[in-house]
Design a protein that fits this description.
This protein folds into two domains: 41 residues, no CATH class; 124 residues, OB fold (Dihydrolipoamide Acetyltransferase, E2P), CATH 2.40.50. The chain contains four helices and eleven strands. The longest helix has 20 residues. The protein starts with a strand and ends in a 10-residue tail after the last strand.
Length: 221
Amino acid sequence: MLTLRTRRLDRQTDEYNPIACCNSNERTGVTRRVTHDLSFPPAHHWRPEPRLGGVLPIVGLIFGLGLGVGALVRQPPPPVHSAAAWTDRPFSAWKHGAAAFDPQRIYAAEVLRVIDGDTFWARVRVWPGLDVDTKVRLRAIDAPELHARCAREFLQAEAARTALARILSAGGVTISQIGQDKYRGRIDATVTTRDTADVSTALLRGGFARSYGGGRRGTWC
């Protein structure tokens, strides 16, 4: 603590003190002497200020390393691909298309769902223990769409879907002469059942579909 004290002293009795700063007054003959008190508080009152500038970066570095090691430890192992993994469940033909099939072979198919009068979902056995789920479109025909442009087309589409479901319900469904459809994830094929040698021909004869060789579709309205 620094204090200032002012005292009046006689000039003749004033002794030189290097710490004191003296100011003389010629008229009064009095010298003002300012003494600086250089006393300090006791040592036990001193408390060093904490310095965190060098500690925080080290703590942050240790924390970051801990997170990195934890992420590496918890990382799941890479998947193991084996022959059994392929046969456990069917895979979709969305990526493979007709390339998953041999066009010279006849494949047994399980009908999963009838979509409309010329397309249905099927699970096809391409190899013992290996099935493929794919959309199958009947070759060389076109049936009315359920997303109809008019009420007449919608009624015809409902009738065509009902007719196809009835034919496929006989069982023993097979597909052959498989080709790639213009829409991804769908194949064109000749379809037969236990009672019907050619499902496309049966729908044509019943008036539920028209012949189709590609290109622009005709209207049903």
